[in-house]
Amino acid sequence: MEAQENNKRFQLEHLFNVNDKGSVKEIPNFGGWELIEVVALITGGGSGIGLMAAQALAVNGAKVYITGRTQEKLDKVTELYNQNIPGQIIPITADVTDKASIDKLVKEINSREQFLSILINNAGISTGAQETEPESAEELRQNLFEHPSGDIGAWDDTFRTNVSQLFFMTTAFLPLLEKGSQQEHGWSSTVLNITSISGIVKVSQHHFAYNASKAAAIHLTKMLAHEIMTSRLPIRVNNIAPGVFPSEMTTSSSDEKQKSFIPKEKYEQKTAAARPGKDEDMASAILFATTNQYLSGQTVAVDGGYVLAAGSL
Ligand SMILES: NC(=O)c1ccc[n+]([C@@H]2O[C@H](COP(=O)([O-])OP(=O)(O)OC[C@H]3O[C@@H](n4cnc5c(N)ncnc54)[C@H](OP(=O)(O)O)[C@@H]3O)[C@@H](O)[C@H]2O)c1
């Protein structure tokens, strides 16, 4: 009997259910019964990996706020993917590179929710590509120093979106995240930064600023995880470093379902998996990293073997 009870702890709905706390439970101070939810916020939830993360959490019962700068994208995602699911997807526009906009977002969530359980800092940008196989120093200088993508402003924009905002978003939401951890014994709220294998591989992949920003984002994740832990806050901070997934960033567009497509052949030779990542690959990684209570300060590369093939530093 005891062994059978133990078996239950291995069931998928116990391990991978973001709404595990969603069972009705008594809350003495409220003098009645109330449904405890998992509340999540995903930046850049209107396309690509952010949309995959939103679906992974909402389809499994979480209430998911998605943000981005483009209202139409968020509305379309809500119209399409918020139907007949146990959770919810709710759009709020915000620009995560603007501190006033982050502050407004915190106030907005605070006015609607008592806590935040999951913050996924996913929004990111990539600037143009630069050639790196020159025949001379002059040619390399032309490609890197003179090229418009090598403009210092492009580096600033990349770092502002891919690095600085992780710091400001995470620190701005700490009080709501702390309250999230107080909702149930055994649950710690979590910050999950979407970084990239570009911050791990030794090659520039023709975009130095992007790769440097992602390496910084991985390091920032670890510093935040450490400082939050030493401040005795029960909030886990980790990052997922994706390989290649279809998105507006990697394909320049989305279709009428807000989804993007990369032909399999394009990555047949580049990874052990011989294909780009799928919705399911990202979804299971998101569920793992958000629900696993023993994961802290880590980088989880979900890349079909991209780092193995490209080599890391
Ligand atoms: N796809 C890949 O292969 C891959 C691989 C490794 C890492 N990543 C990382 O995954 C994350 C998601 O990118 P993606 O590939 O899914 O590309 P994507 O489809 O372009 O998604 C990025 C999202 O971020 C939003 N965003 C950009 N700047 C923002 C800002 N200042 N404020 C709020 N939202 C903003 C965009 O919406 P708006 O433009 O409407 O604001 C967009 O929906 C990025 O951090 C990226 O670096 C992607």
Automatic annotation (TrEMBL):
SUPFAM superfamilies found in the cross-reference section: NAD(P)-binding Rossmann-fold domains
The signal peptide annotation in the UniProt record is none
Q: Where is the composition biased (Basic and acidic residues)?
A: 254-269
What domain of life does the UniProt record list for this protein's source?
Eukaryota
One Pfam family this sequence matches: adh_short
The alphabetized UniProt keywords are:
NADP, Oxidoreductase
The UniProt annotation puts the region (Disordered) at: 248-276
- Locate the transmembrane regions by residue number: none
Q: What GO molecular-function term can you cite, just one? A: oxidoreductase activity
Which family, according to the similarity comment?
Belongs to the short-chain dehydrogenases/reductases (SDR) family.
Write down what this protein is called. Answer: Uncharacterized protein
